[in-house]
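Sequence only, no structure available. Ideas?
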Amino acid sequence: MKTILFMAAFSCGATTLAKSVDYVIVGAGTSGLVVANRLSEDPSVTVVVIEPGKDERENPLVYELGGWLSAQGTEIDWSYELASQPGANDQVLKLAQGKGWGGTSMINGMTYVRGDSAQFDSWEDLGNPGWNWETLLPYYKKAEKYTIPRVSQLAAGATYEIQYHGFEGHVHTGYPTTLFNTSFAPSVIETWEGLSLIHNPDLNSGSVHGFSIGPQTLDAKEDIRWDAARAYYHPIQARKNIKIIQGTVRRITWASEKRGRGPTRPAVVASGVEFVTEDGEVETLEVKREVIVSAGAVRSPLVLESSGIGNPRILESLGIDVVVDLPGVGENLVEQTNHAQAFSSNLEPSGAAFHVFVTAADLFGDELATVEAATRENLTGWAEAIVDASSNNALNVSVIETLLRIQHDLIFKHEVTLAEILTFGIGQEGSDPVFGSNYWNLLPFSRGSVHLGSAEDINAPVIDPHFFLVDFDLDATVATGKMVRKFWTSNPMSDSVSGQIVPGSDVLPDDATDEQWEAFHRGSLIVNSHPLATAAMMSRELGGVVDPELRVYGTANVRVVDASILPTQISGHLTATLYAIAERAAEIIKKTSC
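Reply:
I predicted one. Tokens follow.
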């Protein structure tokens, strides 16, 4: 093992050698590169980012708008294998997560939608004063460089409200040049209006309810994906005080042998990180200020566990010394299932999808009160099932019930959106247009986990989201699926639809029973790849891993900044919120780092 030495021209402009830097950031993903950019604005501060992946700016799967459709399963996707899912017919599914500069912002669908304001406000109830919609909105705007839609794009259904957007940020958002007015948009609009869905003039206003065409993270003039590397690193990579090293972090190293077995023990101090280079060499980089873990909702808890932070039962079984007793690490994983129905139509595609966000009232109609009461009565039983499904003695029934009750109130009292439907008619060169809907339950009650599979291989975690562990998740998904079919078979859309292609009539006939609907959704799901909460920003008593300043409990100078800290699912897509959180996190670090 050796210690990395950098020329001090990199560190402070002198001529001697230095063996440490101010900040080490683990992961060059969506959040990590934001923090790296902002911290390195101070030329006296040195920043090193350690990332297993590579610079993919010349990869067409990354910069071409349609590249993401072929990117999953390639070398720029970790393509994690999940544990077999009993709720999904024992399928072994794959979770897509980006591997390279930009992380998952390289391979996602580029959707830029924030979420419902009440969901962010609920974070304060979880022990995070000052974390709410009002405080996040300025950071959404700070990150964003919005392009107002063209006249032709407005005619095709794009709408916006200028007060909710930023125009000077790093992240380009807008609409592709392929969005143009066709026969598809009027049919979509009239059909959803006929089903009593409202049009939403701007999905980024703090309410996503209704239907609209949302912006994407792209350069609206050049039709190029705008990922985190293109936004936050490429423009500043010439700075002498910032560097990306290709390597896989194995663990955080500690300055003291003191062990923080409980919340009253002294905080431990990180001295650096140990990582494996591309050539397989084990090296150590010392840190003078902080280690910031931004490896994503899958890898960040693995880094913490490898470093001795987590559930003692898990760590000891892997032969890892316990540094901080923190059972919430890797727990509370919330992931969504994604489903699809496809139809044949003679309409002309419009080049973009309509986002449709629906509430429990939209889904359950006259049965809403009954569903609400039954759901509330089942919360204790669901909490017990979640705890029973976790074999790590990390969860507490009363704590899990508290989390589920907050979510129940969001759905039924605050009327946040419960499901999303992407309604699309998309033409692809050399093939027939595709018409249909992808849809998912935005707020599953089921909880899972991600943990190390061994102390030796951080790249082979055990990930179990426990899909459909809570039966309400399946009920909400089925109700959404029925709404999708109702849309495609209602006027005026039905006038242009000649039949359903996926699934076939043998799987889901016109008069399908509830059992057939349930079987279809259990057997046809894919993973939505929106994992979060595995290092949740919550009070320690609720199983939280980081405090409101994103510092890991029991440590003096380790923080987590990525999707793993989001304590609840949101009715949006993660990218927009991750940029905002990382912008705010960078400010917090600047103010509070010693």
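Residues 4-18 have pLDDT under 50 and may be disordered.
Hope that gets you unstuck.
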